[in-house]
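Problem 12. The chain below contains 696 residues. Write out its predicted structure in token notation.
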Amino acid sequence: MTKTRIQYIKEAAKKLVDSKLQRLNAAKTQEIFQGVMQTVGLESLEEVYLFVAQFDLTCRDRTSNMDDLSSYFECSSLDMLEFIPALKSLERKGLLVRRYKRESNIFKQQFVVSDAVMADIIDNRPVTIGKVDVGNVQTDKYEFCKSIAEKADDDEVVTDDLVLFTEKLEQSCAQLPLVKKIRKDVPGILDRILFYDMCRDNFENDSERNSDIATTMKDIFSNIGQRILTKKAIMEKEHILIKLGLVEIVDDDEITLTDEGKEYFYAEDILAFCKPMKCDDIYAFIEKVYVYFHSDNYNSSNDDCMNKLIKTISKLENANKHIPEVKRINNLIPNECERVLFYSVGQSMIENDPISLSFEIQKLYPVRKRKQVLNDFMNNKHSLQKTDLVEIEKTSSLFGESTTILLTDKGKEALLGEDAALYIDNVSDKQLLACDKIAEKKLFFSGELKEQLSLLSNSLSEEHYKALCTRLEENRLPKGIAVLLYGEPGTGKTESVMQIARATGRAIMHVDISATKTCWFGESEKLIKKVFTDYRRLCEKSKICPILLFNEADAVFSKRKDAGSSSVAQTENAIQNIILEEMEKLDGILIATTNLADNLDRAFERRFLFKIRFDKPTIEAKTSIWMNKLPDLSAEDAHTLASNYDFSGGQIDNITRKALMQEIIKGDKPTLNNLVTICCEENISRNSHRKIGYLG
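Solution.
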């Protein structure tokens, strides 16, 4: 009669208990062990010895470790060392179940025979070796990854259990495209488990899609040494998932799926879990770039992040080729990092939140590149400045000096096309005087002054001006033409500018100097900077270059003050520095007038190509002015007035206006006596005699 499984086990237990693992080679004894091996499905005598002992102890309702087994056999713990592979094999096959699974010391790990195996043996049924419960197998990749990740999360599941579970689940779900791909690309089962776990973190966590390295290592690896080795491979970028570009380090303590990793896992479902790259317009595109660039995921000190940024921006741009502005910017700015900076500055403009130059450089570039990039910007040598797409602006405040980076008008137009007009401050009608709005007026000057003004006017005629600019450029000289008209008030300086503009067909952009001075720190500098920005834009849009007029320029061109004297002095000095810089790179026509040439700072003198002095008119010139203003006046009377009164042309204008007022009121032409009376009233009395008040 054939013995049952339980009978073989009982007989084997009698031979093994207290045997010291000796005298087990007898034929009858070997026959019993072979019976256990065949009926239970074991592979070696070592497995038979351990299984029988564990079965016997389990029947006594006891868990057992290696020390318990050495006592069972009455041998030393050292004798049990050679049985460790057999113990692991029994566990892997599911014949033994470990209790307290987080115990790492092999001699302290507690085992029992599984309930299913006990039932099979007692009922004399075939024992299913390697049976692993994978539950209801799903053909869904999300449930697949979730099942493995939840198994890893279970504190009672050790690495060997997790590996066995995953192998069986992969076999059951071998038809899944994800499983087919990753088994081919990633040979190591533990590496695949890591990827599955990270995928679960990505699709289940709406807010935070990263995986904590320490937690993930602890979930997957029971052995501390394995955790350390795997983390080391990740941090040194030697891990296969990083080499394949599926996983990346976010911070020192987090890892996440790369864009490639997301595409690898999600496949056709990518849009459901990742924000689509395609944008409706340039505004959405800029915002997407800005959000990604300024996210915590981007760390410029990490070269991999830099490379990822470039790849991401390229992908984003390729996905939005339908946006004309994106194509235009790609042509204008070949460098990817510079495009990112340009987009970022554009977003700050749209949000009306200027950004710091140093902050953007620190955010974008690794440490080794920051100094050079910053120097390029400060010296106006950066390619974005050379192409006139961005500009920097220095401002002072209570907190010190800061430098912001802004889009130029050209940059705004490149970025936003027709919408750029929404962000460009046009020159107001108050500031701009068209040449056809200037009334013709005859001016009378001495021979030398007349010749100088004639030379200036001829130089500014369009034909001569273009030729002059070309010649200056060929000789590597500044193309800008700066003119200073100085002299006493009322001598015709401003009117000369008007008539030159009229004669040469040039509009005049008039600078309201009083409007450039405010009580707010840094605001005056911004306003004066804006003057030149507006002028450059006006030049670009005008067929004929306009004139930038600083009337009564001594208010801003005066001698610089001691910087430590007051905040006002600091502001005025800062304004002057801006003007000096702008005059150095002037590409246009600047004319300044002043009544106080002695107050002019010497730093400005060399920057004026023409310096024309206006003195009070000669008697002959004044005679001509009198006769021009009052045609009914005889030459003799005009000469008399010119000889007796040292008036400027402006003062003669005043007298003429008053004479015309009297003519309208009284109905009579003004006589010489009338004019003499008005002339006497023109100058304010400087008599020191006090009519009222207290005597000193």
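Discussion. Residues 494 and 593 are 7 Å apart (CA to CA). Students who got a different answer should revisit the alignment rule from Section 12.3.
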